[in-house]
């Protein structure tokens, strides 16, 4: 009796689902006819993902086209954000701004793991003195804002662009480590110390093994080990890293046109992350209340006692007010948010109309002359270096950088360090804050600051790229299925 027939008889006799039968039939390559995932055929694997791995705290943002740029008057006559149509690929973004409790968890981990390098912990400390002003009594915020439980769910401030970027690296590693522990591949290891800690790149490169519980099955018949560690191609770990969103991603997510679209037509104009052109709620019991935490006018940060309009004299909890149509909180007001881009006043003329972004330079994980990854550094990470490999075109090596023209012309174009604050350390922040007027709440508004500077009015949230088809959830468009 053939094996398939035998399974059919068993299925009908015992009420087994047909999926039981299907899983016993190996899938064949439509190109070669050889079986996938078969050790007898060399063990080439085809991984089928039912859904994308998504990192904690992230919500999906379905991409598309929109008009990027400020819709408000250019009061400062900067002329640095002219409207232009661009397309943004689908991605993920944090539901809220990164909170004090999130940063305290980060600090706790750094202090516990990098015991031999206390400077790592110290570098990550937010600048609490951003609250201090010569002619204001803000000392309670200096002492309490980060660490007192009353402020646990408030957005972290006093964090520079560089510190925020380091947090993104740490968060990626902790999320991936959590996936491996939850899937029973690694055991939780609270004894990680200094360079001996889980880092995604060093794990992939075989420079960190961890406390193995049960590795995945090795289908390669020539391998000496019957199991192996997880590879990127297994689709088990996150497909990308937590990072700061690009300026285009942030602006697209904040504007949230999703709820105003019908058959590719925008049904209502937006200036802010909510529907309509006003700053106040028009709904039922909340009618008349402000929809964001901002400064209404000089000396008016919260409203009048007995009716505190936005109910916040400084920042407010990260889930205050109504979320926008993507489910994102406080994309206007509360705190400004760092984005990944380097600031240039003419970026709108230079950058691509597909995933526009301006950075500094492409980097790669460092390898030696034999193509072996460099030894991990004191933080447990594989060093990254500028990508100088490039490719040959007509015998000439071409190395792509983000801002080649600016670097070539930096002495004449901006007069770096002499006449301008615009340089490769100038990073964009957006969104408006508790201490800003309504003008800055529009998603198109942009300002910049040195990447190592910080403020009581600037925080951040993380993003992550999405792999596969751009559609997210249920769609209103017809399909061919």
TrEMBL record:
InterPro entries: CTDL_fold, Sulfatase_Mod_Factor_Kinase, SUMF_dom, SUMF_sf. Pfam families: FGE-sulfatase. Residues 56-355 form the Sulfatase-modifying factor enzyme-like domain. Keywords: Signal. One of its GO terms (molecular function) is formylglycine-generating oxidase activity. Residues 1-22 form the signal peptide. This is Sulfatase-modifying factor enzyme-like domain-containing protein. It comes from Solitalea canadensis (strain ATCC 29591 / DSM 3403 / JCM 21819 / LMG 8368 / NBRC 15130 / NCIMB 12057 / USAM 9D) (Flexibacter canadensis). The lineage of its organism: Bacteria, Pseudomonadati, Bacteroidota, Sphingobacteriia, Sphingobacteriales.
């Amino acid at each position: 009796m053939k094996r398939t027939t035998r399974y059919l008889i068993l299925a009908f006799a015992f009420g087994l689902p047909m999926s039981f039968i299907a899983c016993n039939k190996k899938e064949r390559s439509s190109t070669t006819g050889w079986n996938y995932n078969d050790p007898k055929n060399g063990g080439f694997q085809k991984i089928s993902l039912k859904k994308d791995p998504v990192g904690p705290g992230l919500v999906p943002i379905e991409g598309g086209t929109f008009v990027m740029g400020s819709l408000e008057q250019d009061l400062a006559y900067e002329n640095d954000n002219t409207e232009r149509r661009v397309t943004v690929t689908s991605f993920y973004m944090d539901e809220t701004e990164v909170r004090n409790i999130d940063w305290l968890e980060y600090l706790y981990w750094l202090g516990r793991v990098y015991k031999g390098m206390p400077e790592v912990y110290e570098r990550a400390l937010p600048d609490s003195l951003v609250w201090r002003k010569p002619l204001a009594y803000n000392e309670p915020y200096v002492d309490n804002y980060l660490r007192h439980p009353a402020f646990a769910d408030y957005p972290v401030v006093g964090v520079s662009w560089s510190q925020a970027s380091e947090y993104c690296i740490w968060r990626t590693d902790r999320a991936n480590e959590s996936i491996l522990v939850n899937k029973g591949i690694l055991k939780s290891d609270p004894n990680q110390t200094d360079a001996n800690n889980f880092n995604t790149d060093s794990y992939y490169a075989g420079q960190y093994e961890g406390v193995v519980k049960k590795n995945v099955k090795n289908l390669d018949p020539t391998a000496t080990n019957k199991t192996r560690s997880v590879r990127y191609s297994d689709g088990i770990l996150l497909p990308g890293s937590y990072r700061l969103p690009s300026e285009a991603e942030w602006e697209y997510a904040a504007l949230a046109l999703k709820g105003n679209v019908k058959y590719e037509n925008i049904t209502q104009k937006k200036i802010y992350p909510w529907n309509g052109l006003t700053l106040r709620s028009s709904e039922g019991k909340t009618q008349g209340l402000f929809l964001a935490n901002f400064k209404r006018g000089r000396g008016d940060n919260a409203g009048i006692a007995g009716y505190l309009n936005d109910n916040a004299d400084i920042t407010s909890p990260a889930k205050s007010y109504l979320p926008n149509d993507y489910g994102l909180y406080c994309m206007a007001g509360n705190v400004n948010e760092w984005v990944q881009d380097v600031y240039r006043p003419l970026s709108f003329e230079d950058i691509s109309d597909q995933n526009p972004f301006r950075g500094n330079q492409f980097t790669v994980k460092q390898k030696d002359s034999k193509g072996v990854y460099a030894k991990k550094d004191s933080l447990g990470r594989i060093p990254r270096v500028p990508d100088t490999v490039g490719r040959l075109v007509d015998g000439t090596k071409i190395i792509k950088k983000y801002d080649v023209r600016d670097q070539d012309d930096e002495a004449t174009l901006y007069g770096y360090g002499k006449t301008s604050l615009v340089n490769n350390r100038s990073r964009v922040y957006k969104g408006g804050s508790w201490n800003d007027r309504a003008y800055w709440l529009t998603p198109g508004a942009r300002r910049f600051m040195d990447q190592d500077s910080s403020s009581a009015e600037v925080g951040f949230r993380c993003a992550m790229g999405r792999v596969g088809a751009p559609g997210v959830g249920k769609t209103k468009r017809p399909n061919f299925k």
